Amino acid sequence: MGSERSICAAFYQKGDTLVMVKGSCRGTMSAMSKTQHRARKRFGQNFLQDTGVINNIVRAINPLPEDHLVEIGPGQGALTELLSASGCQLDVIELDRDLVPGLLAAFSVNPRFKLHSADALKFDFNALAQAGRPLRVVGNLPYNISTPLIFKLLENTAIIRDMHFMLQLEVVDRLAATPGNKDWGRLGIMAQYHCAVDKLFEVPPEAFDPQPRVQSAIVRLAPWTESPWPACDTQLLRQVVQTSFGQRRKTLRNNLKGLIDTTRLEALGIDPGARAETLTLPQFIEITTAIHE
To answer: Does residue 13 carry a pLDDT above 90?
Structure first.
């Protein structure tokens, strides 16, 4: 193997972004692998290590030079290396400050790479948006923040072309669930209202270090360019769905009391004695529209 150089000089922080002002950094993932970093439970860190899985993920994403990608939680740079090599514009968001020097050492030589030392749950994704260039969001998401982060991104689909995430298999099954399934609920309904959802493939625990105790999977969320669903008040829809599933064993009659009465449900052709998990997305939209009128 050829020699590697990783010399990082001065950096300054501009908001949540670390900017290199002098010196040079040249490296690859091996520059980071030499850095000893113990995964932290509080950050939900499980670092992707399996080269075959990494290659499969990047093939699914298919990054191109004209793309603007945003990687959430690059960790030790397993995906970052191949994404950066594609020539795309790449913004990465990393919360763990101990990982920042290694990421900068490996990738800041690339003028199209920018690192944001920030919490993705608080990050303003609109600040990265450019006219005519929707964002492509990717990440091996920490399991402890995956659901709230997905809900945050669903509120920003106007600036997003697609999303590819590594998630706990259980979460992917909820995203891709269908009515009548035990996994059908608030997450899947709202995701499918905003996006086409595709479960791509599963990933075993052995692909990570440390190994999680659960199976993982890759999912693609692609915001609709033309929605197949009738337009409705999105915030009200979210409230209706959340209230409907508030107590899964109770009927719509009980859970939706105060939002809509049984007579109006029956007028929509919906059985007030049914449970929320039996309703389709169009039926939730019909309830939302009836309440809004």
So the answer is: no
